[in-house]
Design a protein that fits this description.
Helix 8 (about 170-185) crosses helix 9 (about 205-215). The protein is of the alpha/beta class. The longest helix has 19 residues, at about 230-250. The strands form two sheets. It has a six-stranded mixed sheet. A four-stranded parallel sheet has the order 5-4-3-6. It contains 14 helices and ten strands. It has helices at about 1-10, 25-35, 55-65, 80-90, 110-115, 115-125, 135-155, 170-185, 205-215, 230-250, 275-290, 300-310, 330, 335-339; strands spanning about 25, 35-40, 70-75, 95-100, 125-130, 160, 195-200, 220-225, 260-265, 320-325. The structure holds pyridoxal-5'-phosphate. Pyridoxal-5'-phosphate binds near residues 52, 82, 199 and 202.
Amino acid sequence: MSAFIDALNARPRTTLAHTPTPLERMSNLCTRLGVEVHVKRDDCTGLAMGGNKARQLEYYLGAAQQQRADTLLITGAVQSNYVRIAAAAARRCGMQIEVQLEQRVSGMDAVYHHSGNVLLDRLLGATLHYYPVGEDEAGADANLDSIAEGLRERGASPYVIHLGASHPPLGALGYARAAVELVEQLQTTPVRFEHIVVPSGSSHTHSGLLLGLRAMQCEIPVTGICVRRDAAQQQLRVVECTAAIARLLGIPNPVREDDVRVYDGVLAPGYGRFGVEVREAIELAAQCEGLLLDPVYSGKAFAGLLALVRADPPASGPLLFLHTGGTPALFAYQNALTG
Ligand SMILES: Cc1ncc(COP(=O)(O)O)c(C=O)c1O
């Protein structure tokens, strides 16, 4: 346990997130669902409307500052929360920010292309580049590298955050650290959680938290709700990511393959799109708890939690839902949500 914490503390990091984030009981939802449901409010990490990516960026920005980079370069979907928080993190660290927006979701309206996170990217003064291909992680990363090359030729010193799984998962260290925070919180709460539910995209949140909990000898099952890839692909991604985190930290991997749980029952109709279950989840959280979720990540993850609670046999409580933020995207999806 201490080797894990020492290894985590040895990595360069810059503080960006407001932590510890609150752990709250959702009383009205408990009554409505007939099961104990609590939420860890990582939507409240503070930076530029908050979300999970603030914790992840602490390690990337720590490395960028160590390398004396002057420009941050990142890729993501048009409505990427990661891009928005990265832009804010770069500004906080006195850096320039260049972002590549991938057209992952086709056929979207003008509001999607200009409101929500895109509006915030612009306010933060990010230089926007566009990558027209939808699902091509390696291609998007390669294009990012060529933008970085151009910046270097102009005398800048860019730090590149790639999304591809072949790059060291520095961001996942933010969630390994969050596991330490959570284990400390659990020591002072009387609730004994039976299950933790998180969204699983790049998997840095899911993999980092899972590895961190197991390294802290906390055995609560963690289920990742697929937001971009199906269960088979995501399972493999998490297995590989936990191995890569362990290598980064120089510790044995405490996560067994059969300990990686993913659920893709609410993934359809695909990344950045949502069906009736997600809409119901967003409305339920808003109307029972005043809790705002987004249609791409946190709403999908909560829809996954609801599906697990309603499954036969149902997931047993108490359940802990990790709210990873994403709420600015609500405005970009306003037509889909109100139509
Ligand atoms: C709000 C929100 N939640 C969850 C995720 C998924 O997290 P991860 O990429 O660490 O799997 C993202 C990814 O961008 C996000 O923006």
